Amino acid sequence: MEWTEETIQRLRALWQEGHSTAEIGRRMGISKNAVVGKAHRLELPARPSPIRRESTPRPPRPATPRPAAVKPAPRPAVAPVAERPAPRPQPASSASNVVTMLRAPAAPAENRAPAEPRRADPFDPGPRAEERAEARAERSVRRLTSCCWPLGEPGTRSFRFCGCETVPGKPYCLEHAQLAYVRIKDRREIA
Questions:
Q1: pTM above 0.85, yes or no
Q2: How far apart, in whole angstroms, are the C-alpha atoms of residue 48 and residue 54?
Q3: Low complexity bias located where (predicted)?
């Protein structure tokens, strides 16, 4: 909103007449908040609150005396607890409860057969950095000239993009651009 001298004078006049900020806003074609903000910046006199109070004021409530702060009773001193002695191990009641595990002795390291030597897979470094950069540039050029309309369900093997030649300045081919760019008026007629 552009506040000209004329609009400021009109605001001051309506303010002096005692109109509400909402009414001033309606008459001037601006929001109530714009009126409030400009009136504040112009330091116009404060308005009475629009909140209606009860016609008869309430009698003041009698002050209830608060109970005096009560100090907590002192806690009796607690004697330290004596620790229990650790339990002594009990001898087994019978030999039938004991299970022994038998293991075969491990062969010493020098007696073990050496592992079969295996040939390592040949290292494939993949395309060189220059080739990767060329591929990226080619994809970006293709992206600029091929339709980006998605076909199929994303995340499935059949998902792809249209790929037809695009309309200049648009990311889609003629057919998909007609679907993507529909005027609001046309949308209302379709619905």
A1: no
A2: 15
A3: 66-84, 103-112
